[in-house]
Amino acid sequence: MLNHPPKKLQATLWSTDTNNLDLEKDKNYIIHQTLSIGGIEDWRWLFKTYPSKTIISTFVKEPAKIYMPQRFSLAKVMLGLKNRQFIREYYVVNTPRIIRQKPA
Q1: Gap between the Cα atoms of 25 and 18, Å rounded
Q2: pTM for the complete prediction?
Q3: What CA–CA distance (Å, rounded) separates 81 from 59?
């Protein structure tokens, strides 16, 4: 078995070559990146690779501020944590508004 994610996940794990990622050492990055921007096939791979308990524990105990609001909500539902309270600021990226005067 490979000790790194497959090349098909390169777009999801975009910041590092998948060959340089270790499934154990880099699991927080791999889990959060996959939950936050991965597609359905990426999620399937994630749940085949890591036990649900590990994925949930990582999500809960090692927050990553990389989620868009909708994806954060989806991840909570997919992990069975829909009714659990989280501090959104630990997970959801801020997208500041651009405040400008309207042109005259």
Answers
A1: 13
A2: 0.86
A3: 10
Give the chain's length.
104
| HSE-CB of 87 using CA atoms within 13 angstroms | 7
Instruction: Give the separation between CA 102 and CA 104, rounded to whole angstroms.
Output: 6
User: Could you report the per-residue pLDDT of 4-62, keeping only the tens digit for each?
Assistant: 999 999 999 999 999 999 999 999 999 999 999 999 999 999 999 999 999 999 999 99
The C-alpha atoms of residue 41 and residue 76 are separated, in whole angstroms, by 18
The answer to whether the beta carbons of residues 23 and 3 sit under 8 Å apart is: yes
Contact residues for 79 (Cβ-Cβ < 8 A; gap 6+):
52, 55, 56, 59
Task: Give φ, ψ of 23 to 5 degrees.
Answer: -55, -30
Classify burial at 35, counting beta carbons within 10 Å of its beta carbon; exposed 0-12, middle 13-18, buried 19 or more: buried
Residue with tokens 């590092």: 16
